[in-house]
Amino acid sequence: MRIGDLITRGAKYHADKLASVYKDVHLTYKELNQRVNKIGNALLQDGISKKDRVGILCFNSHYYHEIFFAISKTGGVATTINWRLSSRELDFIINDAEVKILFVAERYWDKIKPIQNKLKTVKKYIIIEGSIPETTSYDNFMAKGSSREIDIKMYPDDTFWHIYTSGTTGRPKGVLLTHRNLLADSEHNIIGNRLNQDDNTWVLVLPMFHIALKITILVAYLNGTMVFDDSFDLKALCELVEKEKCTHLLLGPSLWNMLLEFPNLDNYDLSSLIYSAYSTSPMPETLIKKLIKKFPGINFFSTYGLTEGGSSLTILPNDQHIIEGSEHLTRRLRSLGRPIKGVDIKIVDNAGQECPPGVIGEITASGDNIMKGYWKLP
């Protein structure tokens, strides 16, 4: 199965269900699939073939949603690009990935313009929400594509997502994730977190260039609804949750702390929230206890992982979020939980031998979610 097949199936069996929401744009699965196909066919007309890189430099939105899934249907590789980077850093990533077509939001064009003549592999720029001389507008690009289904032969181990790590130990490395990796990660999370198709409306605040974009795959698997927020504003987030009756929210601990301290928090009806995941950094025990008491209707769970793992390796499910009782139970809040279903975890020493409990070692993981490898690296 291709990642894009999830949208095709949604259109076939849940045509009128809401799939994608951004501001005043509300797309059903049928409408989203038509737009995905139009973009995908337009990419094919412009020469994109298997393994070709298509870059996305865009804000959280339905645009990102449909471009990402459109690329998956063509056999191309989605290269998601961090808009927080400088022009110099973007120069390295776009050239390193050998991007052939680059979708760029007009608001980020000022970062591309200074390096445009250095981006030797980019053959076309497609501008989202705006127009730039000698580029193609998003609407015009989509208009030339057919809405017919795309039939490109692909395999589960074909690379679909080329995503760069933060590069904290040097230059960013391109992680290669396959259709199998990403579908397996979704399945692991659905089973591990006991997710289902009921009350399944996710709001995505974390930037979509981040591995958090994988949530769109999981939600498509469940035929759920994605709601996109590009404001990074607590007031706007609360208004969005209240308006769209969002049920699932993914935030990092720092954002949860900001939300908890938001002065006007009690002015909003957030009672629709029933699930919330936290990850990206350790959650202080005092903070998660405050959150559980403040939001008793939310089932909190955490995952630990890394981009190379697609990204979930361990899970601390809601029933292990114990805030009262004996120490051997409450201390689980300070842990990373247990290996998520489908992943085998070991702690090994320098010789590769498994360490006994309580001994510090290196984490190793195996499973169908683990990356194919690094781009242009051993």
Into which percent range does the helicity of residues fall? 25-40%
Oligomer: single chain
Distance between the termini: 28 Å
Residue runs with pLDDT of under 50 for 5 or more positions: none
Largest sheet at a glance? Answer: 9 strands, mixed
Overall strand count: 19
pLDDT average, as an integer? 95
Outline type = globular
Radius of gyration in whole Å, from Cα?
21 Å
Number of helices: 12
**Spatial ordering of strands, largest sheet:** 2-1-11-10-12-13-14-15-16
Structural class: alpha/beta
List the helices and strands and how they pair.
Layout: H1 5-13, E1 18-22, E2 25-28, H2 29-45, E3 53-57, H3 62-74, E4 77-80, H4 87-97, E5 99-105, H5 109-112, E6 124-128, E7 136-137, H6 138-143, E8 159-164, E9 174-178, H7 179-192, E10 201-204, H8 215-221, E11 225-228, H9 234-244, E12 248-251, H10 253-260, E13 275-278, H11 285-294, E14 299-306, E15 311-316, H12 327-330, E16 338-339, E17 344-348, E18 362-366, E19 373-374
Parallel strand pairs: 1-11, 3-4, 3-5, 4-8, 5-6, 6-7, 10-11, 10-12, 12-13, 13-14
Antiparallel strand pairs: 1-2, 8-9, 9-19, 14-15, 15-16, 17-18
Helix pairs in contact: 1-2, 2-3, 7-8, 10-11
Notes on the protein architecture:
- The protein has helices spanning 5-13, 29-45, 62-74, 87-97, 109-112, 138-143, 179-192, 215-221, 234-244, 253-260, 285-294, 327-330; strands at 18-22, 25-28, 53-57, 77-80, 99-105, 124-128, 136-137, 159-164, 174-178, 201-204, 225-228, 248-251, 275-278, 299-306, 311-316, 338-339, 344-348, 362-366, 373-374.
- The chain has 378 residues and is α/β, with parallel strands linked by helices.
- It has a nine-stranded mixed sheet with strand order 2-1-11-10-12-13-14-15-16, with helices on both faces. Strands 7-6-5-3-4-8-9-19 form an eight-stranded mixed sheet, sandwiched between helices. A two-stranded antiparallel ribbon has the order 17-18.
- Strand 13, helix 11 and strand 14 (299-306) form a beta-alpha-beta unit.
- Helix 1 (5-13) runs antiparallel to helix 2.
- The chain is globular, with a radius of gyration of 21 Å.
- The relative contact order is 0.11.
- The model has no long low-confidence stretch (mean pLDDT 95).
